[in-house]
Amino acid sequence: MFSKMKNIDTAFRHVRSFTTVVVVGSIILSCFAMYKSFALVAQMQDKVYILANGKALEAYASDRKDNIPVEARDHVMTFHKLFFTLDPDDKVIKTNITKALYLADDSAKRIYDDLKENGYYSGIISGNISQTLEVDSVAIDINKYPYHFRCYATQNIIRTTSIAHRSLITEGNLRNVSRSDNNPHGFLVERWNTVENRDLSTENRK
Q1: DSSP class of residue 53?
Q2: What span, in angstroms and rounded, lies between the C-alpha atoms of 87 and 79?
Q3: Fewest CB within a 10 Å sphere: which of 91, 121, 123, 164?
Q4: pLDDT in tens, 12-33
Q5: From residue 96, how far is each of 5, 86, 90, 99 by CA, in Å?
Q6: Of residues 205, 175, 199, 203, the one with CA closest to residue 76
């Protein structure tokens, strides 16, 4: 009888140990499954799918700080191309300058007013002159805020009989502002000034 009770007690302890192991294992497995689920959800939230021409393209979300150099360079390039791309059409000039001034502070507005007062834009219209800009490079210092930049570009001034090429170097700072349709990068050019603007070469048009 005593041996029988002992066997029952041993069996009960074995069952209890086995049950404890199963419960603990189930808890660990459940916690692991929940962890992996949350990690997967977080990973999926960083992905964006864009439908283009009937195809789903995957895009990835990232922090703004990861894109500052790229966005800052593109902002500077866009501003300069808008400000210096001119045709002998008053409407085109106003449209480009208006878009450019959304991207900069009053330092750009002062330069525009000075050029306008000196008859620069009137000369472009009356002389049937077109002006384009090719940005060679943009150097951005993101180690100090506001971010200092220097833009290296080439102006092409197209007249009826010739094309003049000029070296243009400008510098300024970039300050963070709210993004908008008029300023998609969320930067503002400040303290903009011209460092160099000199003739490189002139070629006759055939």
Answers
A1: T
A2: 16
A3: 91
A4: 677 777 788 888 888 888 888 8
A5: 97, 8, 10, 5
A6: 175
